[in-house]
UniProtKB/TrEMBL annotation:
The name this protein goes by in its record: Uncharacterized protein
Domain of life of the organism encoding this protein: Bacteria
């Protein structure tokens, strides 16, 4: 994942978090929470891959 893609994912995660806090509908909140979980897992996976690739270069 490029740094630009990572920045976009992080921004989307931020927007979803703000939307989640304002949302009053429980069904929508659960859907937003699923999206937050997905984006978080993608970002964590990307960060792990980046740190592993950096450690194998040395």
């Amino acid at each position: 994942m490029t740094k630009e893609e990572q920045a976009i994912f992080e921004y989307e995660l931020y927007k979803l978090s703000m939307e989640y806090q304002k949302c009053m509908d429980e069904y929508l909140k659960s859907q937003i929470q699923q999206d937050i979980s997905f984006l978080s897992s993608v970002l964590q996976g990307s960060q792990k891959r980046n740190s592993q690739s950096r450690s194998t270069r040395y």
